[in-house]
Structures are given as structure tokens and as C-alpha cells.
Amino acid sequence: MRGQFDRRVTTERFQGAPHTVANIRKLAVKAQLNYALRQLAEEIVGRLPSKDFLSEIGAVHYWVLGHTRYANDPRSVELVRSPAEVLARLEHHVDQLLEIARAGTPSAPWRPSLDCDDMTALLVALLLVLGREVQIMTVAFRDAFVRGQRQYSHVFVRVREPLTGQWIVLDPVAAEGAAKMLARVRAAHIWPIA
After folding, report:
1. Is 155 helix (H, G, I), strand (E, B) or coil?
2. Is 148 left (phi over 0), alpha (psi -120 to 50) or beta?
3. pLDDT over threshold 70, residue 96
4. How far is Cα 152 from Cα 139, in angstroms, rounded to an integer?
5. Closest Cα partner for 83 from 154, 25, 166, 27?
6. Residue 6 has pLDDT above 60, yes or no
């Protein structure tokens, strides 16, 4: 299968973490140009005090947790959706979602099914439009190598809280189980974004 790339989705055979991270980075960085994404970020954090960066980070993380659901990629295809594609899927429900965001309700009735790289792209983009410094982190839970290269099986976000300089792990797939997930990690790689 020949890989395809458009402005909102990449589909191709899995070619390893560096390739997937490059696609996530490209889609998330480009999403900063999408004003609708900025509007969504402002709706998510709009009731917080100015410069309460930790609460902003938490609000974005919990919004993604409450408005998406996890689902695997197709069996032999690496599917990476951009935040623009996720927003397009949500567009049908935008009035309902904005009302939910304004009311502070934690979850919408319909949620797009995303895997870890889709959720990572969405989180990275939302955090970038709010001016946060982010990194993508890939992890391996076992010692698997192909042609001498470690095989990573999961991806998530690290974001720097600007007042303390601390890096915070955001993993909507592991959610409240992030500490247990991190304890199982055999190897990790950090990919700077912005």
C-alpha cells in the first residue's frame, strides 16, 4: 500500500516510530494555522484565571479525555489524523460541543474514536495554540528490535509548565493509569516539537 498524505490524514503501512512522529509533528504544527482550533482552546480554558498554566494544561488534557474515545488503528495501517480532521468530524456536533464546553459538562454523547497518535496530535496542537512547549514521547513496553532498531508501541505528550519548568506527562489513553503505564516502560524516546 502506497502511503497517502493530505492535509488532514496520513494512511500507510507502519514504518516505525520516527516516521509516525514526523507525521504527528507535521499535522499538529500545521494545525496551529487553524483558527477554529484556537477558538476551541479558548473555550476550554476561558474560565480559568490568566497565567494559570497548570490548570490550562489540565483542562486541555481532560477535555480530550472527555471528548474522544480510544480505538485501535486498522490492523495493518498506520492512520494518523490531524486535529483539523478531528475538528471536521466534530463539526457536525459543534453547537452541542460548544454548549457542553461552556457548561463545563465533562463529556459529549458522541466522541470520535482515536488512537494514541491521533490523541497526541490533538493534544500537541491544542497546547501549541495556547503557546505551550511540547514534546512527543514514544515508549516501548518490551525489548523488541527490527533490523537493530527498537520498536516503540505507544506515544503520548509531555508539556512544560512555564512557571516551574516542570515537564508533565499527558496520556489520554492511560488516563488515570499513567503512573502504572510509566512503571512498565522499558525504553523511551523524546521528540521535541516546539
Report:
1. strand
2. left
3. no
4. 5
5. 27
6. no
Three cell numbers written together for 185: 516502560
Name the residue with cell 496520513: 10
Q: What is the pLDDT of residues 126-172, one digit of tens each?
A: 999 999 999 999 999 988 888 888 888 889 999 999 999 999 999 98
Q: Domains of the chain, with CATH numbers? A: 4-192 (3.10.620.30)
Tell me the whole-structure pTM to 2 decimals: 0.83
Chain-centroid distance, C-alpha 184: 21
| The three three-digit cell numbers of residue 171, written as one number | 496520556
164: left (phi over 0), alpha (psi -120 to 50) or beta: alpha
Spatial CA neighbour of 66 closest among 117, 136, 119, 130: 119
DSSP string, 26-66: HHHHHHTT-HHHHHHHHHHHTTSPTT-HHHHHHHHHHHHHH
C-alpha span between 70 and 1 (Å, rounded): 25
Cell of 29: 504544527
Grid coordinates of 103? 457548561
Q: Do the Cβ atoms of 16 and 149 come closer than 8 Å?
A: yes
Give CA–CA dist 33/35, Å, rounded.
Answer: 6
Distance CA 107, CA 131 (A): 25
